[in-house]
């Protein structure tokens, strides 16, 4: 019950109904006070009206009288005296009493005189007050003959207080307006503040926040507006970062494509201008040009893959595979390249084969990029240590090698696109590790980097196959 009441009170509609009812009560109180303040000094007194006494009381008594036996009619009239405050009697056409209450006069009356007296007596309010004797007469048929029901009333008039109804009306309206204004002032200020806040947000001032008072619809709306402003600010900051990345992209791509292309053009021009070159020189220069072209091809492929996976255009073909076996095969294929770079690969794999569901081509691409990053950025000669473990329902892969320390800012953004260390910028595109992070996330995992005592470790967590 309490929870329901709190829920109902948290609704703006309920609060407005309560505000209206309180304001209505204030209007009634204010109207009463206004009437009290405008009462006239002259007191008026009210006496029973002829229409009221004859049409309501005597006519009702007359109908009852016809239903009562004659022997009990006097007793019945006598019982009516205290409640009606009248002396009651029934007269025939000649004015002779037929039935009467205990205190009613028992004399014969002139019917014509009784009608004149009832007509002349004042039935309006009077300023004099005092005791009055009023007579009321009502003709009807009793036992199939015409009779007259006569009631003699005696008493003081009831004082009537008269005020100014117009003043009472305006004081009630004023009280309603004041109560409604005071009770809704807080919400109206909140709405005005929210309106100003929305205008500021519309002008691009994303740090603006609107009040979130209460748990009603306005409070919820305020929280939603603030959340919208926060997301707009984050979106704007992200857009600025993307603009900076696009500028950096143009700079890096221009550098990474122009440098090998310049070398290729240079070697080709040299070979064209020296047709007498020996076959060994031609092979050497052609080999250098081919190496540069292959580097450009790898960079272009990385860019194409990154753009494709960013927009979720590449389907994932998942198969059951053993992660440790995949690592062993790729390490064997990378060993010749590692030897040329004066590096070695040491495997420290767990006994669990680490069965998972994934795209073999994408996982090979992820591992290949990590191994190439270690070969390019590791201290030579050196060693790359690859180890795996099982943690609950996750497979853990760690690739560690000795490397020059990276600035904290570069380390935090290592998996962003086009982020490389200054030392080896000419050897890496800065796209490989961004692809590594994307492939890990496509498989429901994530990747982190740890730098400790001259070593750099990239750590993966991928979900294992259940059941």
* Annotated CATH architecture of the largest domain: 2-Layer Sandwich
The topology string of helices and strands comes to: HHEHHEEHEEEHHHEHEEHEEHHEE
Estimate what percentage of residues fall within beta strands: 15-25%
Number of helices: 12
Separation, N- and C-terminal Cα atoms: 46 Å
Estimated helix fraction = 40-55%
CATH homologous superfamily of the largest domain - what is it?
A: Histidine kinase-like ATPase, C-terminal domain
Mean pLDDT: 82
Radius of gyration: 53 Å
Uncertain stretches: 422-427
- Main structural class: alpha+beta
Largest sheet features: 5 strands, mixed
Number of domains: 3
Oligomeric state as shown: single chain
Membrane topology: Multi-pass membrane protein
Organism: Polycladomyces abyssicola
GO molecular function: ATP binding; phosphorelay sensor kinase activity
Catalytic activity: ATP + protein L-histidine = ADP + protein N-phospho-L-histidine
Which helices and strands occur, and which strands form pairs?
Blueprint (H helix, E strand, L loop, with lengths): L1 H8 L2 H26 L6 E3 L3 H16 L7 H12 L1 E6 L5 E4 L10 H10 L10 E12 L2 E12 L1 E3 L4 H38 L14 H57 L5 H32 L8 E4 H18 L2 E6 L6 E4 L1 H18 L4 E10 L2 E9 L5 H5 L19 H11 L3 E7 L2 E9 L4
């Amino acid at each position: 019950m309490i929870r329901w009441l709190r829920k109902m009170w948290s609704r703006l509609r309920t609060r407005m109904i309560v505000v209206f009812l309180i304001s209505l009560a204030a209007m009634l109180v204010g109207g009463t006070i206004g009437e009290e303040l405008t009462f006239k000094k002259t007191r008026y007194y009210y006496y029973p009206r002829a229409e009221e006494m004859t049409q309501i009381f005597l006519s009702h008594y007359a109908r009852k009288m016809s239903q009562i036996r004659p022997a009990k009619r006097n007793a019945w009239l006598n019982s009516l005296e205290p409640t009606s405050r009248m002396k009651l009697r029934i007269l025939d056409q000649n004015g002779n009493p037929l039935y009467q209450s205990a205190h009613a006069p028992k004399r014969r009356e002139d019917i014509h005189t009784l009608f004149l007296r009832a007509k002349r007596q004042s039935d309006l309010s009077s300023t004099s007050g005092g005791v009055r004797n009023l007579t009321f007469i009502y003709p009807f048929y009793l036992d199939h003959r015409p009779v007259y029901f006569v009631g003699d009333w005696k008493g003081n008039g009831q004082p009537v207080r008269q005020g100014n109804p117009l003043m009472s009306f305006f004081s009630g309206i004023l009280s309603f307006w004041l109560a409604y204004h005071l009770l809704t002032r807080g919400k109206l200020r909140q709405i005005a503040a929210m309106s100003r806040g929305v205008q500021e947000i519309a002008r691009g001032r994303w740090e603006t926040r609107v009040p979130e008072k209460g748990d009603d619809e306005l409070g919820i709306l305020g929280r939603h507006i603030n959340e919208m402003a926060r997301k707009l600010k984050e979106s704007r900051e992200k857009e600025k970062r993307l603009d900076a990345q696009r500028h950096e992209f143009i700079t890096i791509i221009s550098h990474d494509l122009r440098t090998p292309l310049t070398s290729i053009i240079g070697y080709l021009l040299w070979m064209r201008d020296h047709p007498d070159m020996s076959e060994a020189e031609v092979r050497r220069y052609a080999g250098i040009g081919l190496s540069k072209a292959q580097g450009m091809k790898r960079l272009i492929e990385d860019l194409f893959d990154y753009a494709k996976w960013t927009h979720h255009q590449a389907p994932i073909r998942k198969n059951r595979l053993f992660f440790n076996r995949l690592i062993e095969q790729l390490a064997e294929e990378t060993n010749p390249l590692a030897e040329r770079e004066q590096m070695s690969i040491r495997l420290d794999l767990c006994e669990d084969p680490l069965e998972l569901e994934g795209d073999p081509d994408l996982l090979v691409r992820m591992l290949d990029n990590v191994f190439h990053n270690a070969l390019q950025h590791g201290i030579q000669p050196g060693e790359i240590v690859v180890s795996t473990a099982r943690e609950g329902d996750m497979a853990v892969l760690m690739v560690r090698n000795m490397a020059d320390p990276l600035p904290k800012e570069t380390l935090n953004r290592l998996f962003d696109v086009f982020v490389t260390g200054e030392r080896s910028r000419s050897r890496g595109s800065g796209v490989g590790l961004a692809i590594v992070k994307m492939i890990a996330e496509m498989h429901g995992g994530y990747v982190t980097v740890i730098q400790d005592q001259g070593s750099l470790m990239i750590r993966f967590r991928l979900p294992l196959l259940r059941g």
